[in-house]
Amino acid sequence: MYKRFLFFALFCLWASLSYGYSQEPGKCQTVHFSEPGWTDIAATTAVASQVLHGLGYKTESRFLSVPFTYAALSMGEVDVFLGYWKPSMSPILRPYEENKSVETVRFNLRGAKYSLAVPKFAYDEGLKSFKDISKYSNRLGSRIYGVEPGNDGNRIILSMIKNGSDNLGSFRLVESSEQAMLSEIAVRIAAHEPIVFLGWEPHPMNARFQIAYLSDGDAFFGPNYGAAMVGTNTRKGYIQECANVGRFLLNLEFSLFMENELMNKIVDEGQDPEKAANLWLRRNMNVLPVWLKDVKTWNGSDGLSAVRNFLSLK
Question: Long-range contacts of range 177-183, CB-CB < 8 Å, 24 or more positions apart?
């Protein structure tokens, strides 16, 4: 009888160490995020990571382009992606939705937009719509500036060029990165030279530069100047398997004001995303009761108290 009791006690100890008091499998204690190298997703991922650290979880980020992000999610190599921009990324996500290997658990931001933009002076001079771009081909050098290869916005532009939409068949896409594109915009504006580029909101570019979004792009980026929602994707079954993290992800919602403020700290003030996220959370703890409703720590204690304590010690 004693041996059976000892065996049972050891088994319970092993189970608690392996699964944690949150009743999640041990592998759930590390949350694997994907980031495509965009400032907005760096900011939101950093905020989510800070909260998870306060709950006793670990986080890791892999920097992957959008196509590789969805492939990694489908194969279970990453758990969470906070940057699904709908509708522009919907064609990339669709095959994974259809085979049910990637799930959209909620939309974490509404009121976003994503389309082609130009400096305000170019807009005032007549470059107001997608149909006007070809008229300025000489001054534009027949170039449209995008971000990293494989990006959904780049793919839309490449499709426009390939199909000769709005007489853009002679144009070429300049693919680089978010930061390289922003640098090129700054140079062109300083020289009072027009440039057409991928613009989106939330992003500090909307405050840093005087820009305007082009009309007549509904067929490519969607109506209302590329009006968008940003969603949270996970690998199949993740929010059921890692139910406590899942509850947090289902609660997690951002705002345009919040993301613009965070991105300004990162882009214009040069702060590390983790530092910017931590400082923002310390000054805006009012978001925590909503984000942490019914969420526990890894050890099963009150999540809200734990995160507040974690942030107050930083």
Answer: 177/37, 177/147, 177/148, 178/37, 178/38, 178/39, 178/147, 178/148, 181/145, 181/146, 181/147, 182/267
Cβ atoms of 109 and 254 closer than 8 Å: yes
Q: What is the pLDDT of residues 156-180, one digit of tens each?
A: 999 999 999 999 999 999 999 999 9
pTM of the model: 0.85
The alpha-carbon radius of gyration of the chain (Å, integer) is: 22
Count Cα neighbours of 198 within 13 Å in the Cβ-side half-sphere: 27
Residue 130, class by beta-carbon neighbours within 10 Å (0-12 exposed, 13-18 middle, 19+ buried)?
Answer: buried
Closest by alpha carbon to 288, among 300, 269, 302? 302
Residue 162 phi/psi, 5-degree rounding, is: -60, -40
Q: Peptide bond before 36: cis, by omega within 30 degrees of 0? A: no
Distance CA 234, CA 108 (A): 13
Q: What are 17's two structure tokens? A: 């160490």
